[in-house]
């Protein structure tokens, strides 16, 4: 990425020109450097959730993706917000262009790390809410909990789950995620 000037805002077109060896997210035109490579625990949690989602979705129209996969939250507007959630599910194939998701996915899952917790809990939370993402999960490996936020009446209603719970995925009828398997040691 070129040196950032104070108060300068970027778009997806700028983002596409940046060096692929560095990972960035773009939120309201402001670049955020992605954390270094995830920990083993982060990868194990991500892999297990993805496995459960992918197994459920086999033969169904929705698709599960894992990072890095760009999500252009306002592609039809300012096009200045590009996130790379840890996991996402897209059911509307017209949003997929072979390279990214253009618009709000049906489900977004972020797995916290010390360097991303504030961004995931506050900044991205507001972006996902504004974009109208129906279901947003925040997975906390430290406390072995999952906060599931369901969009209702323009606000997220949060539900907390512990490592012994089974979560019903609201946007995927019949899909459950086993947290004992996700947080298995």
Describe this structure in words.
With 185 residues, the chain is an alpha+beta fold. The chain has one domain (12-182): Alpha-Beta Complex (tt1808, chain A), CATH 3.90.1570. It contains four helices and 13 strands. The protein has helices at residues 12-15, 40-57, 117-131, 179-182, and strands at 24-27, 30-33, 63-66, 70-72, 82-83, 87-90, 100-102, 107-111, 135-140, 145-152, 155-162, 166-168, 176-178. The strands form four sheets. It has a six-stranded mixed sheet with strand order 3-6-8-9-10-11, sandwiched between helices. Strands 5-4-7 form a three-stranded mixed sheet, with no helix packed on it. It has a two-stranded antiparallel ribbon with strand order 1-2. The chain is globular and about 45 Å long. The termini are far apart.
User: What's the helix count?
Assistant: 4
**Shape call:** globular
What strand order characterises the main sheet? 3-6-8-9-10-11
CATH superfamily: tt1808, chain A
